[in-house]
Amino acid sequence: MQDTKFLELVKSRKSIRKYKDTPVDKEKIMQCIEASRLAPSACNSQPWRFIVIDNPQTKETFCNEVFSGVFKRTQFAAKAPVIVALISDKGNLLSKIGNVVRTTQFWLINIGIAVENFCLQASDIGLGTCMLGWFNQKAADRFLKIPKGQKTELLISLGYPDENPDFRPRKTIEKISEFYK
């Protein structure tokens, strides 16, 4: 199997936990959000919103609130020049009905696709990211004034990498796939 340009990008993306303190241009942040905006979603519900926190003082206060106590393990993200909060909305009526009928939380699948687009785009333009699910979600919602019915699902740390971590092992393709006969 020959690697395509896309597969090379996927293979090169890593979760970054150490960042240079170089600010990230707004244009590059918006390029990542644009890649997310174009992601497919169930019933075209687009159940996401991105809140960018790049003001150093605001980011410091936010990070002190969401990465404290039992969430201290993800405090490394506070050193990134940018934190992006991904806010969910459970989608439009048709996708909400689908959530109930299939007992599947489609908005979470949709968000996963959008965030991966964000991270791949960031990697393609020389930025590093780390998707963070371990943070004080209630503190994040309070800080960001998230309305009822919505929720801060994920945080993404974003910046110029100051490390080149080893790749983490992956299962072989034979262990994760089969052709049904």
Pick out its properties.
NADH Oxidase; alpha+beta; 4 strands; 181 residues; four-stranded antiparallel beta sheet
Summarize this entry quickly:
This protein has 181 residues and is of the alpha+beta class. It has helices at residues 5-12, 26-37, 56-66, 93-102, 106-124, 137-144, 173-176, and strands spanning 48-53, 82-89, 128-132, 150-159.
Layout of SSEs?
Layout: H1 5-12, H2 26-37, E1 48-53, H3 56-66, E2 82-89, H4 93-102, H5 106-124, E3 128-132, H6 137-144, E4 150-159, H7 173-176
Antiparallel strand pairs: 1-2, 2-4, 3-4
Helix pairs in contact: 2-5
Round the mean pLDDT to the nearest integer and report it. 92
CATH class: Alpha Beta
Main sheet attributes: strand count, strand direction, barrel closure: 4 strands, antiparallel
Give the total of beta strands. 4
Termini separation (Å)? Answer: 22 Å
Structural description of this entry:
By secondary structure, this protein is α+β, with helices and mostly antiparallel strands. The protein has one domain: NADH Oxidase. The protein has helices at residues 5-12, 26-37, 56-66, 93-102, 106-124, 137-144, 173-176, and strands at 48-53, 82-89, 128-132, 150-159. A four-stranded antiparallel β-sheet has the order 1-2-4-3, sandwiched between helices. The two termini are 22 Å apart.
